[in-house]
């Protein structure tokens, strides 16, 4: 992984040498006004539309009624379509790392709200969802880790002193898991000290694109087994139907995840 000062220097050099285009193709600075508007938030809540994040909390047999609730709140900048999708892809695959700075700035209010909601619970950490090593190699950087660092800098918070890692799964095991249609048990926690575990630390997960919520639910499962509380998650965009024109909800309205 490239260290931050070297990455910054390379980015500056790239911006001098290469012409700059918005991800939509507009010959402009980093983002054209329309894309900037699409990528600037404000953050909106998306956990209710992620099926894997909603678990059954009670069932009334007689009425055949099942009540579900999300595991924790998830904020995104918008639907994974159009201009936001192009910008996210440019940050992920096009190596336009400077876009991450803007994304971190746009997501910061959601993290600040979480800090306010959980201010009596002591310090909590940002914890990036791990990228696959082959993707980090291909892209030149772990964008989710970079986004987490920028968010930490933007909000005065800290990255977790422990991390999530993907479990090595054999091809055969992976195919079996894919047949089951889930990602159960694909992550584990590393680097969690006994002292950290005794404090039962809280974390806010960071990822790029929210789909069904299975990845975040998997992270939650691994962290809960290790004694770590997940207080929320921040993602750049949400890729599922029904979020084309989502309502902008009050971030602090739901504390059912506690
Ligand atoms: Zn544009």
Describe the structure.
The chain is of the alpha/beta class. It has a single domain (15-245), classed as Rossmann fold, CATH 3.40.50. It has nine helices and ten strands. The chain has a six-stranded mixed beta sheet. The chain has a two-stranded antiparallel ribbon with strand order 2-3. A two-stranded antiparallel ribbon has the order 7-8. Strand 9 (202-210), helix 9 (214-225) and strand 10 (229-238) form a beta-alpha-beta unit. The longest helix has 20 residues, at 98-117. The relative contact order is 0.18. Zinc ion binds at residues 22, 24, 26, 31-32, 34-35.
Features:
globular; alpha/beta; single chain; binds zinc ion; six-stranded mixed β-sheet; 9 helices; 258 residues; disordered C terminus; Rossmann fold
Could you say how many structural domains there are in total?
1
- By DSSP (H or I, 4+ residues per run), the number of helices equals 9
Going by helix content, strand content and strand pairing, the class is alpha/beta
Along the chain, the helix and strand elements come as HHEEEEHHEHHEEHEHEHE
β-sheet strand percentage: 15-25%
Shape: globular
User: Cofactors and ligands present?
Assistant: zinc ion
Mind telling me the C-alpha Rg?
Answer: 19 Å
